[in-house]
Amino acid sequence: MDSQIEEIKNKLNVLDVISGYIKLTKTGINYRGVCPFHSEKSPSFFVSPGRQMWHCFGCGAGSSIFDFIMKIEGVEFGDALRILANKAGVELRQENPQLRTERARLYEICDLACKFFEKQLESSVIGKEAETYLLSRGITKDSIKKWRVGYSPETWNSLTDFLVSKGYKREEVIKAGLAIKKDNSNDSYDRFRGRIIFPVFDLNSAVVGFGGRVFKQQNETAKYINTPQTLLYDKSGILYGLNNAKLSVRKQNQCIVTEGYTDVIMCHQSGFENTVAASGTALTAQHLNILKRYSDNLVLAFDMDVAGDSATKRGINLAEEQGFNMRIIGSYGEAKEKSDPADIIKKDPKIWEESIGKAKSIMDYYFDSAFLQFDKTSSSGKKEIGRVVLPAIKRLQNKIEQSHWVQKISQMLGVNEEVITEEMEKIKVNNVIEEKAEGKEISFEKAPENQRKNLIEEKIISLILKNPDYINLILEDHYRLFSEKIGNFLKRLSEIVNLPQEKLKKEEEKKDFKNIFDDVITDDGEFKNFVAALALRGDASPEEDGEAEINLCLLHLKNIELKENLNSISEEIKRAELQNDQEKVNNLIGEFNKLIKEL
Ligand code: ZN
Predict the structure, then answer these.
(1) CA–centroid distance, residue 279 to ligand 1 (Å)
(2) Measured in whole angstroms, how far is the alpha carbon of residue 136 from the centre of its chain?
(3) Closest of 415, 118, 72 to residue 246, by C-alpha
(4) Which of 263, 413, 451 is nearest to 349 (CA)?
(5) Residue 276 carries which DSSP code?
(6) How far apart are alpha carbons 496 and 504 in whole angstroms?
(7) What pLDDT, in 10s, does the model give residues 515-564?
(8) Contacts for 260 with CB less than 8 Å, ≥ 6 apart
(9) Residue 545 Cα to ligand 1 middle (Å)
(10) Under DSSP, is residue 355 helix (H, G, I), strand (E, B) or coil?
């Protein structure tokens, strides 16, 4: 096994593996990007091709490509090994049974099922009919192959029987979402019957789920059905087509989000390879976190009812809060009525290209839709338009922008601006992210960067307040890591604690630490209150190893300092590069690498 791990490591470059997930830019001999494991604005995630390592100065995560895959895919080591082996073209010999996790077997089942469906499309009579239908929709044979489109026969058990014959249990087929358990029995039947099958891939192009579409419309059946939530498939975290789109999204720094499988396939086929679909769900926070790794620019191309559909609006609000630039494709080309991107492209890809170019801002879209949908001359129409548009205006952070739209709506409705503002005041706008975070205390590992240092300092002080001896863990060399005030406080505290015993009246007094605050903090009431509040805080549990905690905190502070230094050096490198001072650039890069090694 070890030799296989080595083989995989030798065949893969850390840079290739990681840049499959994150946007990286070159800084000297290293690469940096925004960390996918904690939320940050300025990039502190580094990849060193020389050392074949990655490290985040923000959250301290880092190590080998295996750790990266485990973390980003949320999988165990065995699965990470399989993913990377696949990428490296290394066939895993003698698979360790312990590594053949349930997850791994589900992957195998999904892939086998996908092959089964592909074969049906290729060779069965009805499969061929399905193929003809796809071709008539404009999907080429090459696309069918690329996206592994298949057909599920109109039978109750043929897929399950096939998988059982390959050594998998019925139960596992159910767990993969491919069969449905019959009530009160151990029996089951195939979920997908008589449907065109679109396999859904994860970022590594492994099949994790399926979407099935009827192609001869029958009554009383849903047009689309999908794999339910399984160990591998979670629709709120999967974007259809991203495995094939990710490089193009990054290159063009733009992602087009459509609604359906055929939209994605037709877009890719016509050269719009930066297209994905949120299958059967509005954009979720998880989707957005994934997209954020590739681009900040979204073009939404799906039918939205701005007056209803709160899930869609929530998705848009989430994306705005996460700092995405968004545009919306409202109507396509000359035709004002809605039709699928796939149909437009079949008609003429040029129309689609123009539509992307003419995509509207969110605000324009809200305005246009509301005014199209409601009658602006009637009083009830005015009210409805206000209901759609005002919350969107209120969400705007920039007051100038906000006033621009207030003016506009006031003109369009013929209603006084003051009245609009007054109405807007009444609306309660919830910040979606805040809603989620409410009631949760932030641990400093997960805290936003600008707060992390403060939280670490607080933690250290509150631990020292519980046991004054801990002050001796803070050495001369550490003071500079703290903010000035805290550093000075700790220094003076240390001096007092370490006064010769006879000078401290009683040992008792040393224990009752709060008594010596007055000696340490003489002139700063606010700071005194701050320390007093920390002393009251009960966040160190009795069994907590305070010494280890403090050392860990110090390590975090060192990381923060290192990161600050690295940031300023990379700024200097940029400046030196602009001045064409090659010698300085080289010196700075040397310094930079020395710092990286300090980790
Ligand atoms: Zn990080």
Answers:
(1) 29
(2) 37
(3) 72
(4) 263
(5) E
(6) 8
(7) 555 556 656 666 766 776 666 554 445 556 778 888 888 888 888 888 88
(8) 277, 279, 340, 342
(9) 25
(10) helix
